[in-house]
Structures are given as C-alpha cells and as structure tokens.
Amino acid sequence: MANSDSNLPRLMKLAVLTRGNSNYHAGGWRLPDSYADAGSNFERWVELARKIESAKFDMLFVADAIGPLEFDRHHVFARSPNADRLEPLTLLSALSAVTKRLGLAATVATSYKPPYDLARQVASLDLISHGRAGWNIVTGVIPADAAQYGDEGHAPPAERYVRGEEYVDVVTALWASVEPDAFPRNKESGIYADPDKVHFINHKGKYYSVKGPLSVGPSPQGRPILIQAGQSDDGRALSSRVADVIFTAHSSFERAREFYSDVKQRAAAFGRDPEAVKILPGVMIIVGRTAKEAEEKQAQLNSWIDIVAGLARMQVGLPGIDLAQYPLDEPFPELPPAAMASRGINYVDMARRENLTLRQVVLRGAASNAHWIIKGTAVQIVDQLEHWFTGRAADGFNLLCSSLPAAIDDIIELVLPELRCRNLFRTEYEGRTLRENLGIPVAPIPRQRQNSAESCG
Ligand SMILES: Cc1cc2nc3c(=O)[nH]c(=O)nc-3n(C[C@H](O)[C@H](O)[C@H](O)COP(=O)(O)O)c2cc1C
Questions:
Q1: Ligand 1 lined by 235 (C-beta under 6 Å)
Q2: Ligand 1 in contact with 405 (CB < 6 A)?
Q3: Which residue has its alpha carbon closest to ligand 1 atom 18?
Q4: In contact, 161 and 238? CB cutoff 8 Å
Q5: pLDDT of residue 188
Q6: Ligand 1, closest atom to CA 371?
Q7: Which of 212, 246, 352, 448 has the most CB atoms lying inside 10 A of its own CB?
Q8: Residue to probe by mutation, ligand 1, list 22, 138, 231, most atoms within 8 Å of CB
Q9: Half-sphere exposure of residue 204, counting CA atoms within 13 Å on the CB side?
Q10: Ligand 1 centre and the CA of 160: distance in Å?
C-alpha cells in the first residue's frame, strides 16, 4: 500500500499542470512546433500522457474553466488560446485506457454540478483507471461560468466555501457508502450485492440533501485523491481538513514556506499526519543548455503576448479594479486591498518585491498566472527546486508547461536527470495507484469544526 516509511529518502512529487488546451504561457501556442490544437485534438493528449508516464511523473492534472473565457471581449477572445478545451473527466477517462501508472486528476467546481454526479463520475474514473483518479476541488472563480447555469452558484467567496465544505462531505460520504467487499456476485448463491455493506448517507445539510448510497463500486485506492488550491483563510481551512494534495501559486520562497508551515500545522490540528498532505507549488521551468539559451526562449515566448489579453488574464485576480486605467510602463500602481483575490495579492507581492512596472507584471501573468517562473540551466533550476524542497516550502511541484511538447521535452531531457542524480525524484513508480505513488495512506476525513451537516464521511 502507500509508502509512508520514514526511513526512505524523501522524494519530490511531480505533477504536470495543463489546461484543456495545454500551453500554459499565453504565447506558447505560437511556437512553431507547439500543439496549438490540443483543445480539440485528443491524439495530442495520448502522446503527452504516455510521455510523462514513461518519465514517471506522479500525475497529469487538467485545470478547467467551464465556458470559453472572455467571449464578451472580442479582441481578447480572438488572441487567447482559451476558446476551446476538452471536458477534463471525459478526457481523463479516455487517457486512462492508454496509460497504466500515471495519476489522472481534474478540476471540477463545486458550484454547479450536484455532488452525487461528481461522486459518481470521479468514482467511475477511479475504477476505469484502476485507482488513479484525483479531484481538484474548486469553488468556482469565474463569474461567466455561472451564466451557463442560469446564474446560479456564483455566491461571494466565503459562502462558496461554506457550500464547498458541505459538498466535499457529501461526496466523500458517498464514496464511503459502498464497502470494499460489498458486491460478492456469487453465481451459486445468487447473491450479487451485500446490503449490509452498502449504506444510506442520509445527508440533510444547509445546501444539499442526498440520501445515497452511490451506485459505483468501491475505489481501488480507498478513495480518489482530493486536491485543493485555495490560498485564503477559508481555502486553507478546507484543504487542511480534506486535501491529500494542495496546489499553490507562490513566487517567493518565504511566502511558500509560510503557506507550507501554516497548512501543515492546520492539518495536524485536525489530527492528520502532516506528511500525508503533499504541498505542490506551481512552477514554470524555462530550461536551456546555457543560461543564455533559456533567456532567449523566454524572450521569444514573451514576444507573442498580446498585452490587452494579458491584462484581461490578470484581471481575474483583481476583480474590483480596471487595470487598463494605469500606465503600463510606470511602477505597479497602489491598489485597494479589498479589490484583490488571492492571485491578485500574489501579483502585488511580486511587483513590490521586484520593483516591477505594470507591463512587467502583465507579462509574468500572461506567462504563468502569478506562479513561480525559473529559468536557466538544469543545474540552476534544480538548485532552486531543491532549496524549496529541502527548505520545507514544497513536497514537490506542479509543473506548468509554457508550451507543449517543447517545455515537457526539455524538462524530461535536462531537468529530470539532474533531479535523479541528486536522488530527488523516482526512477520507478512505487505502486499501482495514485495514492500509493504519492505515499498517502487513506485516513478518515475529520469533521468540520462547526459542522451543521449530518454526515461526514
Ligand atoms: C495550481 C492551481 C490550479 C487551479 N486550478 C483551477 C481550476 O482549474 N479552475 C478554477 O476555477 N480555479 C482553479 N484554481 C483556483 C483556486 O482553486 C481557487 O479558487 C483560487 O485560488 C481562489 O481561492 P482562494 O481565494 O481561497 O485563494 C487553481 C489554483 C491553483 C493554485
């Protein structure tokens, strides 16, 4: 089962972060050899999944937004690679048939889909993939998505989290409603299912009323992997209670370490083993055989950024402010803190720390959406990753590929050998399921502190 033996060397966990259209950097799709069509071309994903599985990555993570982004702003819509993307659970189900060990995780927002449907779909992916499914719990950050559901669901952030907490409790209770040996399927006795091992959940909470049980067999990994990526106080409260894996977007070691230590302490306060919660900051790696080559790759990618589209991408993290009113080439403006979401705070933090102009911050945003960017030779890159890992700011990383396949090919060819040379990354999968490879045993999910819901799995 899961590998939590403290005598074994601590190895980095590595996920590959994609969006349903694959190139993370806004200019990445314009690179001559990039997959510009991955939003509609499944074969690109087969190639990518097989490639990262043979390199022994922990998981492929597919982030998501529901509708096309920025359709109300035609200049931006026309110039951003966000018009089409494959639905992540459908995509991952298909990829599970062409892979054997790679973890397969997707974002599904709690605001729009009934929890029974989500529980059923992710449990099905888990069975189809033989225990490799993960769910990234987001409460929904994109107001335009709500319009696809009669404008239901886009409540203020605090309320979205209260609802999200209950949602997760319903989903995990449904997953626990079918015990591992619930289906004897005994042809001689004629007993297909054991009713004593299948349970109603009888959940009646503030937002959801779900009787259960689930109509999908038990998980091959005990429970699908739960991922969460909120940085706010409410986000940390949810992730420290339920998440196996936590994604973050920090661009400084100090911020990342503060987050790491705070969330691990919160997890311990819930009675959880902090080592069984894996924190993976996002990082965009631009690697070259020389530092100059890496510099040139970044300059080329940045030359393809449309500044208006870049401003629009940043605007999601700064919903109360019209960034277009500020001069681009002057120091980053003073902004009212109340108008910022977590990602906006990251932008401001980065601007102040490095004394950047608005244009420079826009370029960073269009590249990595306020995630950490590192460039240089493999040795320079791995020095920094190792510093975050050994300095307890990270248990591994979520790799944002500026473009595909070039960025992942570079990482596999140049960065992984250096990580392996320093005994920081595996040479073979430890187990068969995602949970085994992450080294996260199944443990009961602690109850919310002030929980009014009747069932918590
Ligand atoms: C690595 C990473 C991936 C994320 N993926 C998604 C996503 O796919 N869809 C989405 O709507 N939000 C996504 N988010 C946003 C967060 O889940 C969260 O909603 C956001 O950080 C705001 O929450 P907070 O106010 O608690 O920080 C992601 C965040 C991070 C750091």
A1: yes
A2: no
A3: 230
A4: yes
A5: 98
A6: 31
A7: 246
A8: 138
A9: 1
A10: 13
* Statement: the pTM of the whole predicted model exceeds 0.90: yes
Instruction: Say what the pLDDT of residue 3 is.
Output: 44
**What is the token pair recorded at 161?**
């989290």
Question: Torsions phi, psi of 282, nearest 5?
Answer: -80, 145
Give strand pairing partners of 62. 18, 106
Is residue 405 reached through a cis peptide bond, with omega within 30 degrees of 0 on the bond before it? yes
φ, ψ for residue 28, nearest 5 deg: -60, -35
55-69 pLDDT per residue, tens: 999 999 999 999 888
- Contacts of 349-355 spanning 24+ positions with Cβ under 8 A: 349/251, 349/252, 349/255, 350/251, 350/252, 353/252, 355/331
Assign 449 a pLDDT band (cuts: 50, 70, 90).
confident
Q: Residue 450 has what pLDDT?
A: 64
Tell me: cis bond preceding 213? Omega within 30 of 0 counts: yes
Q: Would the CB of 281 count as within 6 Å of ligand 1? A: no
**pLDDT score of 431 more than 50:** yes
Q: Is the CB of 245 under 6 A from ligand 1?
A: no
Cα separations in angstroms, 268 against 212, 261, 324, 448: 30, 11, 44, 14
| Burial group, residue 29, by CB count within 10 angstroms (0-12, 13-18, 19+) | buried
Nearest CA to 15 among 423, 372, 433, 434? 434
For residues 157 and 180, give the distance between their C-alpha atoms in angstroms, rounded to a whole number. Answer: 36
pLDDT of 192 > 50? The answer is yes
